[in-house]
Design brief:
By secondary structure, this protein is an all-alpha fold. Helix content is 59%, strand content 2%. It contains seven helices and two strands. It has a two-stranded antiparallel sheet. A hairpin with a 4-residue loop joins strand 1 and strand 2. Helix 4 packs antiparallel against helix 5 and helix 5 crosses helix 7.
Length: 226
């Protein structure tokens, strides 16, 4: 394995903290999100009710990722793939842990989606994750931070640990990033997420994948390592 996981964990953690602070104290999210919203028609770039787009970028891709995860789970028990067991285990665990953890985080952060924010016709004020709503603000909790849908795509970054050749590792990593951003941008285009939501999901996903990889390489014995 030619990646210093401990060093990467520290770097990724610092980047996550920087991202949270940067987007919390600037209006970068709004500047980007304004590009996807028509202030005259009050419509988003893409219609969330467009069935074909919803199937391709939401329901369809989610089912595809579940299918891929099941295939890797089956492959884990096939003797032929013994030398790849550590990598396969990392992918399977990432496919489960990353979306679940992001989903749990969404439930407790109470951050609004762009469509919920006053600027785009909603009723929620734009807040940083460390800020509280006004005392007289009694609206239901929102679950928009970070981006849950894209987490399944970013979990594919774990494919980095499946391959042995450096070239293949980084190609797999790029595939995971592209899939995650494809899913994330769709949700941004329909007003469900700000840029920071998707960036943070990518960073948190990578941080969790690194932890999973560290544990697997340290404690799971197969007689083979990358």
């Amino acid at each position: 394995m030619n990646l210093n996981i401990k060093k990467q964990l520290i770097i990724t953690f610092v980047v996550i903290v920087f991202t949270i602070i940067f987007f919390g104290i600037t209006n970068a999210d709004e500047r980007v999100q304004d590009l996807f919203f028509n202030f005259h028609t009050h419509l988003w770039m893409l219609d969330r009710n467009e069935k074909l787009l919803k199937f391709i970028f939401y329901t369809g891709i989610k089912k595809l990722l579940i299918f891929i995860g099941v295939c890797f789970l089956i492959a884990f028990f096939i003797p032929r793939f013994k030398e790849y067991k550590k990598g396969i285990l990392i992918v399977v665990l990432s496919a489960i842990i990353v979306p679940v953890s992001i989903g749990l985080l969404k439930k407790i952060t109470n951050m609004p989606c762009p469509k919920n924010v006053i600027r785009y016709g909603g009723v929620y004020p734009k807040t940083a994750v460390w800020q509280k709503y006004p005392k007289n603000f009694n609206k239901p909790k929102t679950k928009c931070w970070p981006a849950g849908h894209a987490s399944g795509g970013f979990a594919l970054m774990s494919l980095f640990f499946l391959f042995k050749r450096r070239k293949n590792k980084y190609f797999a990593l790029i595939i995971g990033i592209l899939v995650g951003w494809t899913m994330g941008l769709y949700k941004m285009f329909i007003g469900d997420h700000f840029l920071s939501h998707t960036i943070l999901t990518m960073e948190i996903a990578w941080f969790e994948i690194l932890i999973i990889a560290y544990i697997v390489y340290r404690f799971y014995k197969t007689g083979y390592s990358h």
